[in-house]
Specification:
Elements (H helix, E strand, L loop, with lengths): L8 H31 L4 E9 L6 E2 L1 E6 L5 H14 L3 E2 L6 E6 L5 H17 L5 H7 L3
Parallel strand pairs: 2-4
Antiparallel strand pairs: 1-3, 1-5
Amino acid sequence: MTSPIDRPPEVLAAMQRTRKAAQQLEVDARAVVCWLDAEFPGLVVSMEVQRHYSCEDHEVAHVEPRVTERPRRHEVRDAAEKALTALGWSLHPEGRDVRSAFYHPPRSAHARLAAVDRVQRALSVEGIVAPHWSLTNSED
């Protein structure tokens, strides 16, 4: 008799890929919120990432930064979306049911610096200039 939880190898492999993608999202979202905090000092409180229940492994539905100055929310969200895209995520806001996860910058200064560097490198590989860098480097 076969156990009800026995699954074919291809199903187990797909489940493992989905778990790895979820773990990668945790790492990437934390890196992006650190980067946002560096780009917009004192403005970003946290970041919400929404995913559809039946999304593909590297898809997110919506990104919503929580900010202290509401008029700048769209500017920060655009930056967050670009950063997540540069890290390999695609946005698919299709209007289906979603689940949310909230991310805050870590307390460790070393982790924050490494995260900011990682996101900045990904953006530069994609040819995207971050808001902060475009302002400070435009005078050169």
